Amino acid sequence: MKRNLNKFDLNLLVAFDTLMMERGVTRAGRALGITQAAMSNTLRRLREIFDDPLFVKSGARMEPTPRALELAEPVALALQKIRVALDQERFDPYGSKRTFRIGMLDYFTAMLMPELTQLLSRVAPGVVVRAVDVGGEDEISALERGDVDIIFSRFQWVPPKVTLNRLLEMEYVCLHRKNHPLVGDGKLTMEALLEARHIQYYPRGMDNTVVDEALAERDLHRQIVCRLGSFGMLPALVAGSDLMTCMPEGAARVMARQANLQVSQLPFPTAKLRLAIAWHPRTERDPAHIWFREQVKTTIERSEWRRQPE
DNA sequence: ATTCAGCACGGTACGACGTA
DNA sequence: TACGTCGTACCGTGCTGAAT
């Protein structure tokens, strides 16, 4: 059902969110600084709009209906974004000359930086972003030392004092040159994958790749003839040979576009790469940091490499 | 918690007026 | 004549207090 936002009173979402938290009309009204009667009327309007009771009496409390539970998270997230946006008025991005440091592996840099810098050139032309290559356990200590402002990475574990915001999951894929002799009609078979010679990319802090772990579970191994600790030479090596490499889909799409390569789905399932950003609580309420985290999140949410290829 | 009556406030429509 | 601004009347919305 489509709603016209012009006709929708967005204050109702604040009331809904408060009802979810307080589980009572009187308590929610008190929290919002209105009388219980006004709150009851607000609930009536919410019920009309969503065509659902939303909250039903259960003992002394008003419990949410399934429809209310369905709405709760998206409404809370939207309100959180608005609150963050309103907090930003104390930081002037357009006039700022600040440098923000992101700790991330080099292939995340390739994924994030083109679109992030493009976004910043419009909204904060004086802001500088510095990519700091950190890996594995170093990531958290770099954050704690204040060497970086945020980390964009996969995290197996973070200490409780670090705030983590999971953003996306990504499949692993295989990257190779176009018209590769082992890849017929654009589909990569297990036989071809095992017959091919591979470059293994192993950034700092990642001893074994997810793909090799998934193969090992099947008692299989790919032929690794070259191991690289950095991302820089990968596109040229893959483009100029019959070597294949496996990596997260987002990075593979960026590389494929840059070096005119081909991305193929793996012929077996692997664990997904779970990407998140993390920051230290001391920067939690800092308007400049809040603003910068939003820019990073927005870039990731809108990024080209998250969209399905045509 | 719900409903109702009364009240305040803001938005909209419309006419009068001034200006280019 | 067209356009913008201002004042006024009307209406819808949301509030409070009281009754249920």
UniProtKB/TrEMBL annotation:
Domain HTH lysR-type: 8-65
Domain of life: Bacteria
Keywords, in A-Z order: DNA-binding, Transcription, Transcription regulation
An MF annotation (GO) of this entry: DNA-binding transcription factor activity
SUPFAM superfamilies: Periplasmic binding protein-like II, Winged helix' DNA-binding domain
Pfam families with a match to the protein in the record: HTH_1, LysR_substrate
Keyword RNA-binding: no
InterPro entries reported in the protein's UniProt record: LysR-type_TF, LysR_HTH_N, LysR_subst-bd, WH-like_DNA-bd_sf, WH_DNA-bd_sf, YidZ_PBP2
Keyword Transcription on entry: yes
Family designation: Belongs to the LysR transcriptional regulatory family.
UniProt cross-references to PANTHER family, sorted A to Z: HTH-TYPE TRANSCRIPTIONAL REGULATOR LEUO-RELATED, TRANSCRIPTIONAL REGULATORY PROTEIN
UniProt protein name: Putative LysR family transcriptional regulator
Organism: Magnetofaba australis IT-1
